[in-house]
Amino acid sequence: MADEPISYLALEDGTEVRTADGTTIGTVEHVLQDDALDFFDGLVISTSAGRRFVDAEQITAITTGAVATALTDDEAAHLPRPDGSALYDADPQQFQSGELSQWFGRMFFREHWMRETGDDPGRR
User: Fold this and answer.
1) What's this model's pTM, rounded to 2 decimal places?
2) CA-CA-CA-CA dihedral for 97, 100, 101, 105, to nearest 10
3) Interval 72-99: pLDDT, tens
C-alpha cells in the first residue's frame, strides 16, 4: 500500500524526513504553525546533529509514511538550528494534586504562584 498524502495537521511526531534523493535526515519533532492564521511555517526535526529547522517552502510532500523535501543531501547537512521561543513539555506524572498548576505558575513567573522563600529554581 502506498503512502497517502496528508495535511501538516495530521503529521505525527517521529515521521521520517527525507531529502530529494530519498536519504533520511531525521524525524519530525514538532510542526511549527500558527493556528489562528492556519499558517504552516515548517518543521523542527531531530537529526544526528541535533534539532534542525526545515522551512515549509523546502517541503514537497507530506504523507502517512514520510516528509519529502527539495533539499539535497549537502543542504540537509547544513540545516539551521531552530530559533525563537523555547518549547516546554509538562510532565503531569511528575506532579500530584495542585502541584502542577503551581509549577506552571512558577514556570511562567506569575508572582502570586511563586514561593516566597527564594529557593525556587525556576525563579529569576
Assistant:
1) 0.66
2) 140
3) 999 999 999 988 655 555 555 554 555 6
Please list, in sequence order, all residues whose beta carbon lies within 8 angstroms of the beta carbon of residue 84, skipping any fewer than 6 positions away.
none
Partnered with residue 39 across adjacent β-strands are 34
**For the chain, where are the alpha helices, taking DSSP H only?**
73-77, 99-107
Residues 86, 9: Cα–Cα separation, whole Å? 21
DSSP structural state of residue 63? B
Q: How deeply is 67 buried, as exposed, middle or buried, from its count of CB atoms within 10 A (0-12, 13-18, 19+)?
A: buried
CATH code 3.30.530.20 for 8-77:
no
Output the CA–CA distances (angstroms, integers) from residue 29 to 17, 43, 113, 122, in the order listed: 10, 7, 31, 25
User: Taking the domains of the chain in order of start, what are their residue ranges?
Assistant: 8-77, 85-116
